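Training component of the fellowship. As part of building independent skills, the fellow (R.M.) carried out the full modelling exercise for a liganded target. The chosen ligand was phosphoribosyl ATP. The inputs are recorded below so that the supervisory panel can assess the work.
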Amino acid sequence: MTEILTIAVSKGRILQESLPLLAQAGIVPVEDPDRSRRLILPTGRAGVRLVIIRATDVPTYVQYGAADLGITGKDVILEHGGAGLYEPLDLGIARCRMMVAGLPDAAREPGIRLRVATKYVASTRRHFAAQGRQVEIIKLYGSMELAPLVGLAHCIVDLVDTGGTLKANGLVPLELVAEISSRVIVNKAAMKMKHDRVKALLRELEAAARPGDRDRRSRRCAGAGEGL
Ligand code: PRT
Ligand code: MG
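Fellow's submitted model of the complex:
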């Protein structure tokens, strides 16, 4: 009997960008994950199934072996801390930067204890501790950009892609905290017990994620679009 490999994938933009890479390894869910209500999706590759869950839950499923592998953002891995996980592969998708941001004159006033609003508490603490700065961290779950505008915090730590969200709220990027992209994580026990299958899959995903392959894929997609 084929042993089952379970891959946990973050919902949302990471899922959308992962599906073409997974497809290159023959991993195509039997139902459209956007429409299906099933939480476990079998795939076209024998013995491989997907579970599609919230980004922040992916490292937890993999740490405890409920999934053998996972695909999630480096931001989420940094917050989780990485216990029980290997992080063997950078897929180079869903790229962005974790930044300190604020009003143009923020964070520069000397002598004040900075209040920083973020959902990335661990990364924020590490970033300022590395500069020898003690800050007060206010945990938020969304709409971080609002906090400096209403005086809740001096600045925020959030993900920035185009910068459009910051700009629309009159905020500017101030310091880089970390470059972010999506990574494949692997349960440490699964890496030992299912070594050959996990390694084979990692090799295929690595090939699919190589920039050359990505360019060829997007050219194919563009070509397919033109034909319609
Ligand atoms: O529920 P939650 O919002 O936590 O997650 P979600 O299920 O909505 O997932 P989704 O689709 O938002 O994806 C989250 C993951 O995508 C993150 O963990 C990152 O690894 C990755 N990612 C890459 C991003 C961005 N880029 C990004 N720009 N996640 C969020 N953003 C947000 C950012 O928080 C800000 O609100 O986009 C806004 C900034 O974008 P710009 O282009 O205006 O700068
Ligand atoms: Mg979101």
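The panel noted the following from the submitted structure. The chain has two domains: 5-94+181-213, 97-178. The radius of gyration is 20 Å.
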